[in-house]
Amino acid sequence: MVSFTNQALKGVPRTHQIDLLEKYQTVTKADVVAALRKHFLPLFDPTTSVAVVVTAPGNAEDVGNGLQAMGFEVTQKEMQIDPSEMEEYETGSESDGESSTDSR
Fold first, then answer.
1. Residue 79 neighbours by CB under 8 Å, 6+ apart
2. How far apart are the first and last CA of the chain?
3. pLDDT over threshold 70, residue 103
4. Domain boundaries in the chain?
């Protein structure tokens, strides 16, 4: 059942969910595969995409080698952290003077 809000404000018909189910039933495996080939696989093609990967320094070489093996041009950069930022994080202090606890 479609909510009154959807019917009144969004113009969704009362049979919206039934209509969607009927449309879903017409989708074939070939339709899904074609959509994946068109929209999803190009994301992993080095000629049509750019990959940005953030990883631990110990994994950087393996990840870089894997991407190069797939045909990506790899440029590795190490992020530099300002030591004062680490001190603020470790002590839990923030700019407004309140402290917070991170339960990771």
1. none
2. 40
3. no
4. 1-44, 49-76
